[in-house]
């Protein structure tokens, strides 16, 4: 039994027989389930088994898959802020899938977030899904199955991964060194998404959560928004996330650029610059969405306390602060939550983050300030 499948009975039932010595693995799997459910870890484990099959040194093959160094494993993540581009899959997947393996009996391609496939990229991938070479296995990953194009979905064997429980997520956060009360709160605030729960921990995560809380609370006090301008702190925390990613990728880029002949270095640097810009944008967009989710759930917690539904409170480590503000009108809180959700949707249209957050701030104050 693969350890990565232990808490996923559906995935276990589908994959373990296929990976058995007399089994037959599908040419295309679609692993679906919420973020943090374990899809990536399972994809790597399955890839390791596929590439170890028939290898002279199976354990060595598995180890290289785990380290990301196996030449017959290709792992693709979107470079665009909101979609997978043709350039993300054209050479790495479409072209490569027609070429024989370097050393294994198979080639494995893992593509993350296939719900973000653009139309052109999807059409390019479709032919590979319809007519794969006998040695090709594709493992597609998605947090949002309903948003995967039907033409893609219908050509894959679906494998469901269930969300971790709040207790499981909290335990995982504690194992990373998080305070038990904070771990419990982050697990609840993530709404079943283990990856988002982790994004709220650590120095950067705590800063993002604290900024979001101050933004939410400022709307309850007349004049506080104009005085403290808390959306600036939220955006600073969001951009700090992007800066970390930029620095990490620039270090990788500099190492790779040095490997090319001098006449090629300018082109490679330009390509890397675009990849870094897109990656930073994607991380910042996700961080801002998470911050606004925290804002909305602060208001939901206030409403829960007002209704006497204390077991629904998610910010379990902020009980005192919540109780001090629990007199807010539930109907106004509901309208505030709707305003936050409306702004989250607007960010999918590439609106100005600064203007949208400032607009939301004053809209919330009009709704909630006493």
Brief write-up:
By secondary structure, the chain is of the alpha/beta class. It has 16 helices and five strands.
Give the helices and strands, then pairings.
Elements: H1 9-19, E1 28-32, H2 39-52, H3 58-67, E2 73-76, H4 86-95, E3 107-111, H5 119-130, E4 136-142, H6 150-153, E5 157-160, H7 166-175, H8 180-189, H9 194-199, H10 202-218, H11 224-228, H12 230-257, H13 262-307, H14 319-324, H15 330-346, H16 353-368
Helix pairs in contact: 2-3, 4-5, 7-8, 10-12, 10-13, 12-13, 12-16, 13-15, 15-16
Task: Give me some keywords for this one.
single chain, alpha/beta, Rossmann fold, 2 domains, about 375 residues
Please characterize this protein's 3D structure.
- The protein has helices spanning 9-19, 39-52, 58-67, 86-95, 119-130, 150-153, 166-175, 180-189, 194-199, 202-218, 224-228, 230-257, 262-307, 319-324, 330-346, 353-368; strands at 28-32, 73-76, 107-111, 136-142, 157-160.
- The protein has two domains: 3-160, 3-Layer(aba) Sandwich (Rossmann fold), CATH 3.40.50.300; 201-368, no CATH class.
- Helix 2 (39-52) packs antiparallel against helix 3, helix 10 (202-218) runs antiparallel to helix 12 (230-257) and helix 13 (262-307) packs antiparallel against helix 15 (330-346).
- The protein has 16 helices and five strands.
- The chain has a five-stranded parallel sheet, sandwiched between helices.
- The protein is of the alpha/beta class and 370 residues long.
